[in-house]
Protein: ABC-2 type transport system ATP-binding protein
Organism: Arthrobacter bambusae
Amino acid sequence: MTQAIVVEGLRKKFGHREVLHGLDFAVEAGTVFGVIGPNGAGKTTTMRCLLDIIRPSAGSISVLGQHPRSAGTSLRRRIGYLPGELHLENRTTGRRTLEHFAAISGPVDPHHVNDLADRLNLDLDRQTRKLSKGNKQKLGLLQAFMHQPELLVLDEPTSGLDPLVQQVFHAMVREAVAAGATVFLSSHVLSEVQQAADAVAILRDGEIVTVSTVEALRMAAVRQLRFNSTGTAANDVGALLARVPGVANVAVRELPADGHAAGTVVATATLSGHVQPLVQELARLNLTDLVLEEPDLEEAVLTLYTGGADAEPAAGTVAAGSASSPRRAEGAHRA
Ligand SMILES: Nc1ncnc2c1ncn2[C@@H]1O[C@H](COP(=O)(O)OP(=O)(O)OP(=O)(O)O)[C@@H](O)[C@H]1O
């Protein structure tokens, strides 16, 4: 499979201050790659380097097999770009604005534009200055998607969109990928990218902390476990849990007989990693209740954001760093 984006050793300085410290990553063609990170992490700066809006201080970038710096407008036409802040001419309509963008991005099918506007519920004949924040964002999305580009670079695409329109956006992404496009998008929070992305890079202070699949993040995230069992002493339940890989914070106690079967033991613990070893051990018990909560991915990502004590890259992930070759996210490939 070919790579739509290859970034090696990307550094960017503004004045004396370096804000990107040597990023290495690659995006497989036909996949969705999400970059998440807190404010100021460098997401927008990375995207602007990909589009040659700003020049890197060091490192190399290949986009759709070309170098953005030398490729010029021919490459630009193959890309749809939603900037974080879209500057719109106030005294014109959405339709005229799109015509202006079409002059840059290349031929656009007007039926396709109308179809997208309908789906996004956007009135193209309104003056752009009268559009709400969310409607301006829809116009920004429309100009990014309208020429059916090979690569979509979308800076905070769901910002300001209501949940229904977010669903339309996710459908648009799926359709673009089904047609062979590659999508590179950014967000502050995982929930926005987890629906769409095959691979997720977590960016913190101008460095990639980890590149992972959503599934690998899920594996690394901690889940709460609680169950009731009968017929086994509390100490033995505790010992059984203690030998399961990934289980921690075990607490076991016997419930008073009132309202419960005699000898009911309630156990709580946390689990990270695979569930199968846990299920195997639990099968030895006579369970009367069992709850294994959904992993809190946001929390897992926040730990990586802040570099907390447990901020190890997720199992099965690829840590990106100073290596000379770009790393690929495991399992991030489409068949
Ligand atoms: N033109 C510029 N001049 C000086 N510093 C800049 C410039 N553009 C960005 N920066 C700095 O670079 C760092 C990264 O900013 P960037 O906008 O790329 O972050 P981000 O991850 O996109 O943040 P956000 O989520 O807030 O949009 C920040 O510290 C920012 O202040």
Notes: The radius of gyration is 24 Å. The CA atoms of residues 9 and 129 lie 41 Å apart. Residues 14, 19, 37, 39-45, 84, 188 surround adenosine-5'-triphosphate (CB under 6 Å).
